[in-house]
Design a protein that fits this description.
The chain contains eight helices and eight strands. By secondary structure, it is of the alpha/beta class.
Length: about 220
């Protein structure tokens, strides 16, 4: 049996090291996908434990797709499954702690430029919203329009409400354990590091790797 933790902010593979540098708990797709592939090779059951405020929707979709492709996946929401994490929670049979919660909302992004670029950004966001709503609709059996409406309102759900809506299959049994004490609420804005800081750290990381490569060549 393979255990996979989806904890902290969900970020891209390339940005995981930045969050690690600042000591920010995070989940990236690469180790999750590797764990799923290893479990498939060994024909093992996969148990996924989620307590995340969400994050990068592309990274979340990558994880969702990998889990959804494997038949023996069991998802346990131990605390919160918000935003991108709520999409991951739809990838298999799921249960949620009575103290757990789930939140779905529209996709957001930063954009700048003239009216054409802003119009393009609006279209991208609409496409992203419908893509995410598709995952919710498949899980719940409800219409795309209903899920888009709930996303537009930024809908927060208790454990019972999440099960009633169909986003989660059942409440976890007492033996599964309760949600961790001191669980932090996620805000409407996912606590991703500022893009400017990420860009600076990526640049520093690229320079550091280049210097290491140069040292190897000299040696």
């Amino acid at each position: 049996m393979a255990d996979i933790d989806i904890k902290g902010v969900i970020v891209s593979n390339g940005d995981g090291w930045v969050y690690d540098f600042f000591g920010v708990e995070n989940t990236t797709p690469a180790p999750v996908i590797k764990a799923v592939r290893d479990a498939q090779w060994k024909n093992e059951r996969v148990d996924v434990y989620i307590n995340s405020p969400g994050g990068d929707i592309s990274a979340g979709a990558d994880i969702y797709t990998a889990l959804r492709a494997y038949s023996d996946v069991h998802i346990h929401i131990t605390g919160q499954a918000c935003s991108a994490a709520s999409v991951i929670a739809c990838a298999g049979h799921s249960d949620i702690s009575p103290a757990g919660m789930l939140m779905i909302h529209n996709v957001s992004m930063a954009a700048e430029g003239d009216n054409r670029e802003m119009a393009h950004a609006v279209n991208v966001l609409k496409v992203a919203d419908r893509s995410i709503a598709g995952a919710y609709a498949e899980k719940t059996g409800r219409s795309m329009e209903e899920m888009l409406g709930l996303m537009a309102k930024e809908t927060w759900l208790t454990a019972d409400e999440a099960v009633e809506l169909g986003l989660v299959d059942e409440i976890s049994a007492p033996a599964s354990g309760a949600a961790p004490a001191g669980m932090k609420l996620c805000a409407a804005a996912i606590p991703l590091l500022p893009e400017k800081l990420l860009a600076e750290m990526r640049d520093k990381g690229a320079k550091a790797r280049a210097e290491l490569d140069l040292l190897k060549i000299r040696r």
